[in-house]
Each structure stands twice: as C-alpha cells, then as structure tokens.
Design goal:
With about 290 residues, this protein is an alpha/beta fold. The protein has a single domain, classed as Thiamin diphosphate (ThDP)-binding fold, Pyr/PP domains (Rossmann fold, 3-Layer(aba) Sandwich). It is built from eleven helices and eight strands. An eight-stranded mixed beta sheet has the order 2-1-3-4-6-5-8-7, sandwiched between helices. The longest helix has 17 residues. The protein is globular, with a radius of gyration of 19 Å. Bound molecules: thiamine diphosphate, iron/sulfur cluster and magnesium ion. Thiamine diphosphate binds next to helix 4. The site of thiamine diphosphate has 20 residues, from helix 4.
C-alpha cells in the first residue's frame, strides 16, 4: 500500500499554507506504515471528524469515515468502539469542536479510558466560520466576535486531559511532519484513550507559524519521563496557550497502562453476543 492510495479525488479547499495539510499527510503516512507493519488492517480503520475546516479530512482520506456534528466526534467514536472493539477508531476534531462544544464528551472519554485516538487540529480559532475565538485563543485575541480582544484566558487542554485521567497525552506541531507522524502512530497504538493536541496554524485567521517555530522543543529529546504524572503536569504548565511563551514542549507528556473502557464493559465478549432487549417490546411498554 502507498500513501497516495489513501487519497480521494475530492478537491482540496484548505487555504494554501494551512497546517491541516500536514495533519492529513502525517495521519495518512501513519496509517500506511501501521498497515505495512501488520499492526493495522485498513478495513478495520474508522475515522471520524466534526464540523469545521479540519473536518474535511473525512473528504480527503479514502478510509471508512463518519462526518459527525460540531462537538460530536467523541460520542459516535465511543459508540463505534463499543459496537465493535476490533475496530481502530480515530477522531479528528477542531479546537472549537473538542474543547468548546464537545468538551464534556472529551473529559468523560478520558475518565473512562475509551479505546479511541483523538487528534485535535488546534488552530486556536474557529476557522470555517471565519475567525471567532475558541477556548484556546489567547487573551486579547481580536477575533470576529471579540473585535476589542477576547477578555478571557485560554484553557490548557494538556492540563485538563491529565487531570481528567487520560492515559496518553501528547502535543505535536504541524510544522514538524516526522515528529507529528510518530506521535499519531503512538496514539493509535495506545491501549485506551489517547489525545494529541496538534498546534496547527490557520494562515488566514490566526497565523502562528513563526510563533511556534521559534519556541517548540521535543520533550523526549530532553529526557522527559512520560510515566511521571506530576512531571507531565509541570511540563504542561510551561506554556498556558497565552500570547507570551518561552519554550513550548511537544511530544508525549504522559503515558500509562490501564484497562480500556470497552474491555471492562464487554469483558472479552463481542457486542453482538450480548443479550439485546426487544426494542419493540420496550417501546410498547413505555410509549
Ligand atoms: C452545533 C453546531 N454549532 C455551531 C455550528 C457552526 N460552526 C460550524 S464550524 C464552526 C467552528 C469550527 O471551529 P473548529 O472546531 O475550531 O474547527 P476549524 O474550522 O477551526 O477547523 C462552528 C461554530 C455548527 N455547525 N453546529
Ligand atoms: S481558514 Fe484557516 S483552518 Fe481553515 S483552511 Fe484556511 S488556513 Fe486552514
Ligand atoms: Mg479551530
């Protein structure tokens, strides 16, 4: 299999220079490598996306896909994983999508350790709806809905995911393709819930290429111990997603082994082997 084989014929409408291109390419290369290594069956892969510029990845990748609603990637991803735990389920979501509208789903998936990988296209802006602020926009961000500058401080999704019990928490930068691909591979291969916050410049509404390029450094190259939760939290606090920054860590903050939600719920059984209620009877009794 080659990476070009996983491209569709859909016309790509992302703006030239958008960080989404690198995320799509890195994911496609990661899928192909995992297939070639015998660690993934392409027919068992399901991707999901929300609504936004990022979501067009479902149009561009020739794999099983589900185009969901804004903020609703995690819920159907969880349902798909529970319905057939043999599937590899990868959700692609925007920052407005995952950290705003759908935040509660994300927190509960982390808490439960549902076996899905979430890749967040974090451009820190609503791209598709032309430039409103999101939960990760810095204070003072002059978006369309905040022309005088957002008065709010951003949330730090790395801290939030660590506090929610996520067993794989990473950050990548779409300006470092090889590193991003490696992190996506690790996230997909992880047992349980994994999240990768990808710093993705939106060249049209929040061009952060230079800001990130000058500041990112690789946690793993600096010997970070990803099994140490307290140390992960300390590294997460090196940058708060504000406008000012010294260095910005990328790589795996935290990784732990815990049984996945579907293993605990299904206990080795396939969903179709579980006793199913007679839906007609239930409806007749309650409607
Ligand atoms: C339930 C719902 N709320 C709001 C919208 C309108 N809407 C569509 S895309 C979008 C913003 C997308 O931003 P983000 O999730 O950050 O994705 P990006 O476009 O930046 O990739 C919004 C608010 C919608 N389609 N559905
Ligand atoms: S508006 Fe921003 S996020 Fe959307 S395609 Fe253009 S550069 Fe990318
Ligand atoms: Mg966005």
């Amino acid at each position: 299999m080659n990476a070009l084989g996983l491209k569709t014929y859909a016309k790509n409408t992302w703006c030239p220079g958008c960080g989404n291109f690198a995320i799509e390419l890195a994911a496609r290369q990661a899928f192909v490598e995992l297939v070639e290594e015998g660690r993934l069956k392409i027919e068992n892969l399901v991707i999901l996306s929300g609504i936004g510029c990022h979501a067009k990845i479902s149009d561009y990748l020739k794999v099983n896909s589900f185009y969901s609603l804004h903020g609703r990637v995690v819920a159907p991803a969880t349902g798909i994983k529970l319905a057939n735990p043999e599937l590899t389920v990868v959700g692609f979501a925007g920052d407005g999508d995952a950290y705003g509208e759908g935040l509660d789903h994300l927190i509960f998936a982390a808490k439960r350790n549902v076996g899905i990988a979430m890749i967040i296209h974090n451009n820190r802006v609503y791209g598709l709806t032309t430039g409103q602020f999101t939960p990760t926009s810095p204070r003072g961000f002059p978006g369309k809905s905040t022309p005088k500058g957002s008065p709010e401080d951003p949330i730090n999704p790395i801290e939030l995911m660590l506090a929610s019990g996520a067993t794989f928490v990473a950050r990548a930068f779409s300006g470092d393709l090889q590193h991003l691909k490696g992190i996506i591979r690790e996230a997909i291969s992880h047992r349980g819930f994994s999240i990768v916050d990808v710093l993705q410049p939106c060249v049209t509404f929040f061009n952060s290429w230079e800001f990130y390029s000058k500041r990112v450094y690789d946690l793993q190259r600096e010997g970070h111990d990803a099994s140490n939760w307290e140390e992960a939290m300390r590294r997460a606090r090196e940058w708060d997603y504000g406008g000012e920054a010294g260095r910005i860590p990328i790589g795996i903050f935290y990784k732990a082994e815990r049984p996945a939600f579907e293993e605990l719920v299904l206990r080795g059984r396939k969903t179709r082997e579980l006793p199913m209620p007679d839906i007609g009877k239930v409806l007749n009794e309650h409607v």
